[in-house]
Amino acid sequence: MERPVWTPSPERVAAANLTRFIATVNERWTLRIDDYAGLHAFSVEQPERFWLAVWDFCGVRSEQRAQCVLEHGDRMPGARWFPQARLNLAENLLWRDDNAIAVIGLSEDGGRRVLTFAELRALVGRLAQAMRESGVGVGDRVAGYTPNNPEAVAAMLAASSIGAVWSCCSPELGVEAVVDRLEQIAPALLVTADGYRYGGWAFPLLDKAAAITRRISSIRKTVVVPVLASKPALAFLGDACTFDQFIAPYDAGPIAFAHLPFDHPVFVLFSSGTTGRAKCIVHGAGGAILENLKAHALQFDVKPGDCVYWWTATGWVVWNFMIFALGRGASIVLYDGSPTYPATDAILRHAAAERATFVRLTPGYVDLLAKAQCTPSRTLDFGALRTMIVASSPFGASGYDYIHENVKRDVHLASPSGGTDPLASLVSANPIGPVFAGEIQAAALGLATRVFDDAGNPVVGKAGELVVCKPFPSLPIGFFGD
User: Fold this and answer.
1) Beta bridge partners of 478
2) Contact 430, 439 (CB under 8 A)
3) How many Cβ atoms are within 10 Å of 9's Cβ, its own excluded?
4) N or C: fewer beta carbons within 10 Å in the chain?
5) What is the pLDDT at residue 461?
6) Which residues of 174-204 are buried (b: 16+ CB within 10 A; e: fewer)?
7) What strands, in cross-sheet order, belong to the sheet with 387-390?
8) Number of H helices, E strands in the chain
9) Given CA atoms 363, 338, 178, 264 in this order, what sign does their dihedral have?
10) CA gap 209, 171 in Å, rounded
11) Could you read off the pLDDT of 284-308 as tens digits, one per residue?
12) Contact 359, 384 (CB under 8 A)
């Protein structure tokens, strides 16, 4: 019989958020759930109770929740979750207002910037005022064309705080690819940078940003974060200013969060564009909050005070996933640069230096580490690390061996799979269960997944299409403009 490569200790099981959640569900509804499989069955068979329990356990903040959890639960699409709720995504990620670290911004040149929760909240408040004064309102789109820096996080939060919709393209995309995406959603405001660094090289962005703003007439103002130069020349960019100039007239103060319906649009994410023009997938605030707080709390065991490092770029759905760690009261590490510069194990060096408790890598990066014969555990301290996920493509058994032998033996190593369409993992991690090399641990809580063959018949033990068979909160609300 195959043996697990990792099993959580009794102490770790007892301390897990998931264990406490099971206890609250059992007490609330007089049940006897005693393992992950039982909880998953409950989550898909009694979705109203499950998602209500998630709402309360994760402390979702709302102006009103109402008692109705699900309308038209037999429709997909067409189901409506918490139809009377009014809430705000930014408010749910900015509930902390203290001096604990919220954001750590790292750059290739060795730069390190830190924002506390109080500082992040103050910055978001000033940005929100500036956006409003620039004419951005509820339902308007704010676009990013920006590297992975603290200003990008603040801009996303500010946009959502006023009820605007955030959408972002990574800076390595060319002008045509960016226009192809952003032109469809007609953004009112563009947040960009004067450039970015990757692999030891500097890549200017302002010429590309100027070409984009000339092509997209809806962009009324461009806000530029200085990265390569302290005072970038912006005269040729139309109505443009630096980030600091944009917020300079406004003082920090209470944020006037716009409380809007559960399915009010909050993100536009783009399909790959490999089969025609990139599709504009619209996600609602409530579904994004519920699903991703659930994932961080129950699947990834993120706790207040943790340090979470998702290696990602701003145009990837993984970036959106990462932001929700703030809603768990954890700090997030942002890195603007190449994962292999100045050394192949740069990401792991960051993780050790920042005392990261959670790290997200890709199978391709783990392969690079193994081929380079990196042995980071010999020189780096991963004492804080509890959880590592490796996702974006299949993760073979050899990768598990490499991580356990060369990074940390006692780490919960999992390989979820999901993506842009659901803004969720369809299969995910189970922090209280064993890990088998080369296998995904479990179906994600709250998602009724099955595998079907080409004829539409359910199969077990055979290859097929992974399908979600019942409604779930983060199901997209549609395509933009459809």
Assistant:
1) 282
2) no
3) 9
4) N
5) 87
6) ebebbbbbbbbbebbbbbbbbbbbeeeeeee
7) 112-116, 101-107, 331-336, 307-310, 358-361, 387-390, 412-414
8) 15, 27
9) positive
10) 10
11) 999 999 999 999 999 999 999 999 9
12) no
